[in-house]
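re the bet — no i am not wrong, look at it urself. input seq straight from the record:
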Amino acid sequence: MTAATLLYVASIAFVAIAFTSPARKPNIVVIFADDFGFDVDCFGSPTTRTPNLNRMAAEGMKLTQYYSAHSICSPSRAALLTGRYALRSGIYGNLTKIPPGTGDHRVVHPNCYGGLPSSESTVAELLRQNGYATMMIGKWHLGYSYEKPDQLPTRHGFDVFYGTPYTHCEGPPNYPPVPVFSNETKIGRLGIDINTNDLVYDYNSEAMKFIASQGAAGRPFFLYMALDNTHSQVYYPTNFTGYTRRGPFGDATAALDWNVGMVLDALRALELASNTLVLFTSDNGAWYVPSPLQAGTVGVYQGTYAAQHLGYTDTGKGSTWEGGFRVPAIAWWPGTISPGSMGENATGSLDLLPTLASLANAKLPSDVVVDGQDFSPVLNASKFAAALENYNASKVFYYYRGNKLMAARSGAHKVHFVTHSGFGHEPFVYHDPPLLFNVEIDPQERDLLPHSSIVAAIVAEARQHNATLVPGAPQLDLIDYKAMDCGGLSVAESGCCTKAGGKCTTKIAF
């Protein structure tokens, strides 16, 4: 399959060259890893091999203070696509009112019939309205229920979709086997007629075809690759087994890195590289719950204060310590981004919609609040020096856990109003006065600073933010086991429910 894909790219390269116009709007590729953490050579990992991400950083820019918008899957993805905190679009659940046995209400599980509201404007919709071809590959995680396509990416601005509606591991024994879609057509299920490991190659093949076809057509494109093979339980083709000393997670990372390299190579082969921005990052920090064989690391963002004073070390994914939100990010755009450069401003996935809209000369939605900020000046400091000087000057970043505001950062300083581990069951700890850290000097949040006027200023900003924010209806509280997709499955295959008329009716395992 890989050889055929490369042949396909090579065979039409000359067509793409002929149709390329120097005045074209930039192509955009966003590669969104899953639960990734800092297991990258160029971010200091000692045993993970990532030659293509290293090359991407050497030829582009490392964004060294980059934040996921939220510290868990579905809210993070909603915020990336909309440029808005997920609380505004309703991608949260009421954490204090969770019925027993219905999940954690923090992501869109297969038994949830909520999802990203159709009223939300996505970056795919903005770009498509401005002439872009749009495709999503991989994990959606923002809605699919009752075996209807109404909530799939094709209803949110993507011309083409190839992937899964939720995480690859959200199948038996808790849920039916995960379906795989081509656009709005279900083409199979993981573990039944599609081998999960093959998704690495399948996703790459679809990406290569899309890039090559749009290059040949001379049309600007937006490709969103949400690759979930580093989410526990990790997966990768067998030929990557033993590739690194890092164990299964390292081998999954190697497969992810290979996918990145294939994208970069295709863009160069088709002479599209100089007109294409590629951004690599992750949906949230590394997950502490699985074993180290199945999970990434949070790097220096250890949340040390939690271990020393609050009794837990689970400060990665799901938490509002830096380890839950800080993620590696690399931007690559030959001829625009200086090779080997570093963007040290605080940026993040919340900023992608306004940034990409700016690059495409697209108008932002006027009927909603956009929380992100255009960070295109960071990508080309020599061109946008004046704008860069003022970047972040008035920016406050808010750390949410569901609908609860937990912390805020302004400039170098972060305050914690409330703390909790990523996935523990301890009660929330409310801090009065709030905890204060300088997360530029002390990114591991070890040394508590004395209370000062900085705290009062951030508290005032947070109060104003809270007073004006209008939450959307909580989509993740919408639970119905009939919403699960058991279509075409026997009772034995569905693994988790009895059947009546082809629908799941009663949950029998969790």
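see?? Residues 6-22, 506-510 have pLDDT under 50 and may be disordered. told u. also The chain is about 25% helix and 20% strand. so pay up
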